Amino acid sequence: MLRTARGVNYTFARDATRAPAVSYYDYIIVGGGTAGCPLAATLSQRFRVLLLERGGSPYGDERVENMTHFTATLADTSAGSPAQRFVSEDGVINSRPRVLGGGSCINAGFYTRASDDYVLDVGWDLAATTEAYRWVEDVVAFHPELGPWQSALQRGLLEAGIAPDNGFTFDHIEGTKVGGSIFDDEGRRHTAADLLRYARPEGVDVLLQARVAKILFNVGGGRRPVAHGVVFHDSEGQMHRAYLNAGRRNEIILSAGALGSPQLLMLSGVGPADHLRSFNITLVLNQPAVGQGMADNPMNAIFVPSPSLVEVSLIQVVGITQFGSYIEGASGSNWANPRHQASSSGSGGGQHRPPRNFGMFSPQTGQLATVPPKQRTPEAIARAADAMSRLDDAAFRGGFILEKVMGPASTGHLELRNRNPDDNPAVTFNYFSHPEDLRRCVDGLTVIERVIRSKSFQRFTYPDFSIEMLLNMTAEFPVNMLPRHDNDSRSLEQFCKDTVMTIWHYHGGCQVGRVVDAEYRVLGVDALRVIDGSTLNASPGTNPQATVMMLGRYMGVKIQNERLHAEGFKRRKL
């Protein structure tokens, strides 16, 4: 049983070691993440659902629940971390979730909807998506109160011409706005796992530490392959099988994310034939598009040291430009965590200082770390941490103003490294391979320069720090494994390429129209869908988490209503 952050007992959730060797369900959902949790909660209202999550619980885990632990969690490379690090073939350090609630447990918390144009272009029903968004927002979305630094950023964006002022809104509108947050006013995170409070307890089983090895198919006889079960292992290595109940509308649904879903399709025999055969994987369906269309919205940031104290903040304000770049910012100890409060060690024993967590400057963290990734031996990390611990907190005071490219237009691909589902696949995003992405990055950096120079932001900048100095300072941080060039401060194009980072909005690999149809059914096989960010052809809005949670609810309602109608039941409100 799990006790949630709001005191609701999840009697239906348990460790996979307690699962039977064989079980049967109407729906088997692989991945208890941002889409999987709302999907399972919805389908459980009328059907028996199994939700398999490879990670553990977010509840009672300060790494997830406490906003100030954001960067420390990304730096945690232990086997039990809710974040699993991977490095793309491009040399950019990234993370994927490994916890119930998925990416909503390890992200920066910004909550914003997709635009109406995006919804209509995808082919979703506008009224139904609005209802699904509200269903999500009633549990996880909050109105943040801006501190001085975020307020200055908001005014600076308006002064820089990113108008109008749209105030607080969940909607995606050109101009400057304050968006929602999944952090409440006490800095506590609320995640997609909280949406399981909507579940019918008798209708769902949630298994944690359940690592799915492959999907089982019935094949042969000249018929299309039919998914009918999954094989998974618990934390002790014991194998379990879960099968679909008899009934042609029962289904397996992959919600394992943009890396996990295409990876699991390939491991199950659905993917590019030659690639699968190279790993001695029995081919179920030759589907060359699996793993294609991988994209990650490039992010570039400028660090702005501040002479004034700044609040701890993650993303709260966004400037939505007309040219396809989104301007955001984060400040304070989450990006350069100060020393923890000193504590007494006896009546006359002096002071004991716990280790400092330097956030995005941390020697252990990929982003903005002080030790280049290829030199991150334990000894080098220890030396860097010791040297940094001697610096005054003022050396890290400030914030980052960043720009994210919409889309993006540049795409890559994903391939298996081996047959182990716990290992990261090899993924290439081809950042800035399309010139439109590079143009948008340069235009976004130009807006950031105007914000830094604005009267509204004067309190948080040193007057003698030129833009060139800030660019050079930022370019010195080993944010990725790419080589640097001497002209980073003179060429914004080169700065974009050299300092590219992720903002963790990667998507693709099982795209609509290529791997799945408009109803998210996998093309060429039966009883199998993919419902998660791997199906997206572009990232929605300025942050995808709201839309991915919405998609889980939206498709759950749609599947349930269509099935009930087909089986002769009267449609009912969910």
TrEMBL record:
Region Disordered, residue ranges: 335-374
Bridged cysteine pairs (disulfide): 441-496
Requisite cofactors: FAD
A single MF term (Gene Ontology): flavin adenine dinucleotide binding
Entry binding sites for FAD: 99, 212, 504-505, 533, 544-545
Keywords: Disulfide bond, FAD, Flavoprotein, Signal
UniProt xrefs under Pfam families: GMC_oxred_C (PF05199), GMC_oxred_N (PF00732)
Similarity section: Belongs to the GMC oxidoreductase family.
InterPro entries, sorted: FAD/NAD-bd_sf (IPR036188), GMC_Oxidoreductase-Related (IPR051871), GMC_OxRdtase (IPR012132), GMC_OxRdtase_N (IPR000172), GMC_OxRtase_C (IPR007867)
Natural source organism: Lolium multiflorum (Italian ryegrass)
Protein name: Glucose-methanol-choline oxidoreductase N-terminal domain-containing protein
Domain Glucose-methanol-choline oxidoreductase N-terminal: 257-271
